[in-house]
């Protein structure tokens, strides 16, 4: 049984959402400490010590502190292998190696353009910012290239690393959710048959739906 798991951040953050989804998949109890709790007392020693330099997510388990969302997910899966979804990080070395390949692909090639599109398509309109069409088009092109590769793999597999939902799929959810919440971004996913099927499957998982509910109840502030 997990004890003393704390997540510091806002569910609206893609990094925080990634960690929350993993916690729900692993059926682990945790405390979410929202960053805005510290807004009026942002100089508290505990907050300064825990805060991730990017301001996105901080995870604490006992005396251990982690600030990278993907590393936190790996930690949860290795620290609590028998809890919740046992297959999410693979049940053997070959499966885990495949999952790691996709986690690296997501971090190195998917995250960059998708994060840019999240900001420019989903967040910028809320901030009344003028869209940079050239920048958007360039990142759409990069993401399309990645999704074309995904579509070929997903024509053979139910999920990226095989026929089971894993961290490889989970890690894509937060940014994909924001992109597909816009009409322009949704087309990037629906234009590819197997990617569309895959995204429908992973985004309908109860773990992710719990995170979406948390986001809607406590929308983030973009300051």
UniProtKB/TrEMBL annotation:
Record-linked PROSITE patterns: GST_CTER, GST_NTER
One Gene Ontology term from the biological process aspect of the record: response to herbicide
Pfam families: GST_C, GST_N
Gene3D superfamilies: 1.20.1050.10, Glutaredoxin
GO molecular function: glutathione binding; glutathione transferase activity
Cross-referenced SUPFAM superfamilies: GST C-terminal domain-like (SSF47616), Thioredoxin-like (SSF52833)
Enzyme Commission designation: 2.5.1.18
InterPro entries given in the database record: Glutathione-S-Trfase_C-like, Glutathione-S-Trfase_C_sf, Glutathione_S-Trfase, Glutathione_S-Trfase_N, GST_C, GST_Phi_C, Thioredoxin-like_sf
Domain GST C-terminal: 92-222
Catalytic activity: RX + glutathione = an S-substituted glutathione + a halide anion + H(+)
GST N-terminal domain segment(s): 3-84
Keywords: Transferase
Domain of life: Eukaryota
GO cellular component term, pick one: cytoplasm
Task of the protein: Conjugation of reduced glutathione to a wide number of exogenous and endogenous hydrophobic electrophiles.
Family: Belongs to the GST superfamily. Phi family.
Record's protein name: glutathione transferase
Organism: Lolium multiflorum (Italian ryegrass)
